[in-house]
Write a structure and sequence with these properties.
Order of helices and strands: HEEEEEEEEEEEE
Oligomer: single chain
Helix content: 10-25%
Number of strands: 12
Shape: elongated
Structural class: alpha+beta
Number of helices: 1
CATH class of the domain at 129-285: Mainly Beta
Largest sheet: 8 strands, antiparallel
CATH topology of the domain at 129-285: Jelly Rolls
Length: 287
Amino acid sequence: MRKNWQMTRIVLLAVLAVALCMSASCKKSETPPAPKQSASPAPQKEAPKETVPAIQPVAATPEQPKEAPKPVAPAPAQTAQASGGAKMVPLNIELPKPMFVGTPQDIKVENLEKPLGKPRPPFLAPEGTILLSRGKPVSASDEEPIIGDIDYITDGDKEAADGSYVELAPLVQHVTVDLEKQCEIYVIVVWHYHKQPRVYTDVVVQLANDKDFVTDVKTIFNNDLDNSAGLGIGKNMHYVETSEGRLIDCLSQGSPKARYVRLYSNGNTSNDLNHYIEVEVYGKPVQ
């Protein structure tokens, strides 16, 4: 019986030893093998460096010579020679004596021309220009003036004294000078009334070869801002009456050819009446 126990003990020990061996083998197989490391790590690629372009030296630009200012051509009426080759000379316009001195400050009129503050410069006209209107026939829309006679307008008297001007009725009125033949007109000068500073409104000057001013009419001056005279809206400025009169340059407008000169007005800043002292037309008869 003791022998059997020893055999049993040996068998148990053998079984236990086998079991321990198997357990150790399982644990060993469960541990994953460590990865193999290469002998030398692969070199990392270096990021490309940003290339900065080299700054090129800028060549100095030679300074350009300044362009000389272009000469300004003189106004057509002030050239030394007319387009036709005629010599230009100062026009002798006889002026009456001034009746007031200084610049009026209390006249409030829209689109009023600023006074020049000095005498008007001489007007250049073709040599041989003559006064065409002196003593020529005159007619008016008001055939019975309130004061004076219509023929005062071309009698050569430019003074502002009583007996030198004609006074027409209120509202739009006109006077017409008949040059008695077709003429090439260079300049017109009109004196309404210069005894005191005032502004005449709706001043319109027209030329025509038709005595009724129906056809072939040319407007050379118009300061009617609202067409109240019924002749169209003008672009010329209002002006204060002086002893120099209002000079209207026709030479720069092509020296129109006409027989009749008509002048309109529509009252003034002092009253509703219309006045004329003198109208002078300069030019040459058409040959």
